[in-house]
Amino acid sequence: MKRSALREQIFLLLFRIEFSDAEQMKDQECLFFSEADTPFAERDMRQIREKYEKIADRLEEIDRTINDRTVGWDTDRMSKVDLTIIRLAVYEILYDDSVPVGVAINEAVELAKRYGQDESPSFVNGVLAKFA
Length: 132
Hints:
The chain is mostly helical. It has helices spanning about 5-15, 25-35, 40-55, 60-70, 80-95, 100-115, 120-130. It has one domain (about 5-130): N-utilizing Substance Protein B Homolog, Chain A, CATH 1.10.940. The protein is about 70% helix and about 0% strand. The longest helix has 16 residues, at about 40-55.
């Protein structure tokens, strides 16, 4: 699976955090992988799970960082889709040396185009520009 496709799957799994308690997320992970349209290769499943768990472990820290850098927009006011995309990109920018900053931002904007509202790509780009 290509990196952009893996990133999209991580986004979809991470999005479930918005609707599930921490205790429910293990079950949500199992459901995510079992309900997939096409089965995941073992390697892809491992990569998705590992990155998702790394982000989930730092979620409070990531949100605090987002709130520190945005003016007039804190994580409580952002749409759940935009917030999830921004969380993923901020993690990649700050903690994942294998992803260049420009790639993290571009991929986030592409996810926003696909899953967000009309203004999502520019909003996501504007927030992430504060991390570049």
